[in-house]
Amino acid sequence: MSNAINDKLTGSPNAIVEEWEEFLKERYPENAPARQNGDKKAEQLRNYENTARPTVREFYRQNHRHQTYDFVRQKRREFLGLNRRAMGIWEAMDFLNTLVDDSDPDTDLSQMDHLLQTAEQIRRDGHPRWFILTGFIHDLGKILCLFGEPQWAVVGDTFPVGAAFSDKIVFSKFFGDNPDSQNPRYNARLGVYDENCGLDNVCLSWGHDEYLYNVVKDYMPKPALYMIRYHSFYPWHREGQYDYLTSNDDREMLKWVQAFNPYDLYTKSAERPNFKELQPFYEDLVREFFPPVLKW
Ligand SMILES: [Fe+2]
């Protein structure tokens, strides 16, 4: 690995976060439909892999190698006790804002600016208040970066662990380095799961989605929780994979996850939202759903 790539993966905690999101936009251009299982597109996926930047490729290599069933279960034990901090949504937002991207000199927008752009587009489209709030908070789990977690354990497309890796996951060839792909307990179609056991019973690769879901799960309506928990689960909501692990409930909720995805991908812009103007609306919104302090 070159020094420059290594610096990005271990240095500025936000460098890969931004590059991963750019790569998602290349793979899923605006107005491209979600795929059904069986759609032919392996070749196209390989093309995106071939043209991906070296940092993005190296990021996926590490992600796919290290996200094992045991790793995910250990991270869940480590973080989901939520005993790191007690803070409100606004304090978490300030904390997230300390994550800056010094790889991109064109933009000095903060993480909250991007979240406001997402939320404001949802609001302009006339969606309910809980949907707007979901847009505003959905990436707060990226504070995992600030707890010293490596970027491949914070962002990246998520996928089930403990069962066979789908070849429709981007850079699936890197799963060859993942010990689970050699383990007969984990490399079968169902692995450790039962047919249609429901996603709530499935361990996805560890990252910011599952973490934030656990922080907010008592306070938001079910479609919001699905959006938060599965917004990076591209193999499911964009590639039509893993239907055999889902319940009827999950299938019912998939449409909400898909409704959220365009706001996640296509609302970033260089224009800074006017926070002073927007602040009263968002303070009311946060107060409507959340207590003053949450466990993180
Ligand atoms: Fe995210």
List descriptors:
1% strand, 296 residues, mainly alpha
Structural overview:
The chain contains 13 helices and two strands. The chain is an all-alpha fold and 296 residues long. A two-stranded antiparallel ribbon has the order 1-2. The longest helix has 19 residues, at 248-266. Fe (ii) ion binds next to loops.
Give me a quick take on this structure.
The chain is 48% helix and 1% strand. It contains 13 helices and two strands.
Q: How would you sum up the major sheet? A: 2 strands, antiparallel
Count of extended strands:
2
Runs in which pLDDT lies below 50 for 5 or more consecutive residues are none
Globally, the shape reads globular
Say what oligomer this is: single chain
**Mean pLDDT across all amino acids:** 92
Give the structural class. mainly alpha
> Which sequence of strands runs across the widest sheet?
1-2
In this entry the ligands are: fe (ii) ion
Helices and strands, in order, run as: HHHHHEHHHHHHHHE
Radius of gyration: 18 Å
Distance between the termini: 34 Å
Count, helices: 13
Q: Strand portion, in percent?
A: under 5%
**What is the percent of helical residues?**
40-55%
Describe the protein's topology.
Layout: H1 3-10, H2 15-27, H3 42-51, H4 54-66, H5 69-79, E1 86-87, H6 89-97, H7 111-124, H8 129-137, H9 208-216, H10 222-230, H11 234-237, H12 248-266, H13 275-289, E2 294-295
Helix pairs in contact: 1-4, 7-8, 9-10, 10-12
The structure holds fe (ii) ion.
